[in-house]
Amino acid sequence: MTERTITNEIAVNDFRDQFLAIWNEIFQHTTGPHYLLDDDNSFFDTLADITAEEANSPVSNQSASLAAQVQHTAYYVEALREGLATNFTAKADWEGSWQIAPVDDTQWQALIGRLNDSYEWVVTFARETHDWNADLVGGAFALAAHSAYHLGEVRQGIGVIRSR
Questions:
Q1: Given Cys at both, which of 74, 128, 132, 145 links 118, Cβ 3.0 to 4.6 Å?
Q2: Which residues contact 50 (CB under 8 A, 6 or more apart)?
Q3: How many angstroms separate the most distant Cα atoms in the chain?
Q4: 3-state DSSP call for residue 160?
Q5: How far is the C-alpha of 54 from the C-alpha of 160, rounded, in Å?
Q6: Topology of 12-162 in CATH?
Q7: pTM of the predicted model, to two decimals?
Q8: What is the pLDDT at residue 7?
């Protein structure tokens, strides 16, 4: 196999538009085009009918609750935001990002709101960023992959919880 150099560069607007298409699909109800999900499978579509009681239920003895999955996903974005603001001098508390007391209906809705705030921050950051260097592009891939993974955990988890 030979190595070759790619000399074409992707336009910032093209990268941003495609990243946001995937980011929006992970979180918001979309009607297409779909790169990852079918209709009605986004994070907020999925969370819309999960009750606080279900959110508090551990999926298994080795798995986090749905509330912990949502909190951790929001925290991931918050840690990135803090890192960008402090040149990554702040140390993230990844273990703590999973710790959550049982939530009631109001707290569950607030946690979903926190996830929405994180989602919206990324949208704003992506729209306002013009210098998409390699670190930011890699971070964008990581954000999308991490969020999609935890969406999958929540979707699998609610299936297990509701089958009991």
A1: 74
A2: 66, 108, 154, 158
A3: 58
A4: helix
A5: 10
A6: Four Helix Bundle (Hemerythrin (Met), subunit A) (1.20.120)
A7: 0.92
A8: 64
Question: What's the whole-number average pLDDT of the chain?
Answer: 94
Our measurement of the distance from residue 14's CA atom to the centroid of its chain's CA atoms, rounded to an integer in Å, reads 21
Block residue for tokens 């990554």: 88
CA–CA separation, 92 and 23 (whole Å): 23
Q: Tell me if 66 sits within 8 A of 49, measured CB to CB.
A: no
Residue located via tokens 């509701």: 162
* DSSP letters for 92-148: P-TTGGG------HHHHHHHHHHHHHHHHHHHHHHHH-----HHHHHHHHHHHHHHH
Calpha distance 36→27 (Å, rounded): 11
For the chain, the structural domain boundaries read 12-162
**Cβ atoms < 10 Å from Cβ of 92:** 15
Terminal Cα-to-Cα distance of the chain (whole angstroms) = 51
Closest CA to 153 of 40, 52, 72: 72
pLDDT higher than threshold 70 for residue 68: yes
